[in-house]
Amino acid sequence: MLITCLDDDPRVEPLLRRMLGRIGHTFHFNSSVSAFKAEIAEQPPDLVLLDLGLGQESGVDVIHWLAQNNIQQPLVLLSGRGDGLLDTARRIANSRGIPVRGIISKARLASELPALLDDLEAMPLVPEADTPTQDEAAPDARPRPSTPPPRLDAALLQSLISKGDKDTLIPYLQPIVSLTDGSLRGAEVLARLRMPDGSILDASSFIALAENQDLLYSITESLFRSVVAHRTRLSALNFDFLAVNLSAGCLRDQRTINLVRALISTLDTLCEVQIEITETAVSRSPQQIQSLAARLKLAGTRLVIDDFGTGYSSMRALAELPFEILKIDLSFVSEMFDSPKSLQLLRAIIGFGRNLDLQLVAEGVETEAQREVLVSEGVPLAQGYLFGEPMPISQFIQRFSNDPLRAGINHLSTAL
Fold first, then answer.
1. How many CB atoms lie within 10 A of CB 296?
2. How far apart are the first and last CA of the chain?
């Protein structure tokens, strides 16, 4: 493997040359940014060791240069200024499409670099274009769309919603399971929109547009009606709860409380109704949502703070609203192995929720390794592609109605 290092400290060169030569790698060293750029253009290496502290032109500047020139050489980031800086630089590189294979403090360079290189030798360093990375290609990873979603404009959305066709706005369910044994405990209702060509859009593709067109109440009403229509068939699942999302616009509509009351009444003997509210939604109209949240709680639902930690007022939302359940945002789950800092932050959120006696649900669990960490930290419930993707209600019922415990265990066993 050809490895190029950019570091302005000449003391690093003999250390790396001895280390890398001993384990059979070809090594080039550059102490100037200009020489490094010329070498990259002439002879791209298999791996770049990039120091962040390069003087006037930093390693972050080099990352930007690589991105601007569409040079996607895999990096291992080095720094003597702490893991926090390394983690930030890794995020900068990843956000610009530059693959980072590892971050190493210079104090641990001799002990950690050989082991990292051994791991990298077992995997391709530069993925082919449009080829999933190792994590993405795993059977339990989240599927990625192969084609862009069809274009949806305001006029088309208004037309589709106004028709009131039961086959246009479709409720999907995603299982929420026990982390210890994979048994079904509940489900989250997720809105899907069927386009005229038959393609299905997820909520992220139309909810913002629907809010701008004042269509959120109509969408929520239609979605609840569809769920209720499946009540008899859902009774075969014997699960504990059904979670539904209320967006900021819907929370500001006083008619929403009547929708929720009707849903609770209809599902009363079947399962509990949980209402998921994002921290972002709370921050938009705090006083109005305080009143509505209290009324929802009195109506018999439990409140879930969704996407916890992604905004700036999560703590205030917990203080001001009667939340009982905290959903750990999927970003904290997906990044738990990226750095020690990421894992410590996840543990802090778990401890925070536990100290407030909140039930914890982890979102976005896609691998067995993530599940094991969450189990060891005492998180009881989770959802994610490891346990099941969002699916139409009929498919959900078919999968979980016969034996919800075995369905969860079988899915877990495929990942082991």
1. 25
2. 31
